[in-house]
Amino acid sequence: VQLVESGGGLVQPGGSLRLSCAASGFTFIGYAMSWYRQAPGKGRELVAAITSAGDTTKYADSVTGRFTISRDNAKNTVYLQMNNLKPEDTAVYYCTVLIFGRNYWGQGTQVTVTS
Question: For 62-72, what is each residue's pLDDT tens digit?
Answer without folding.
Answer: 999 999 999 99
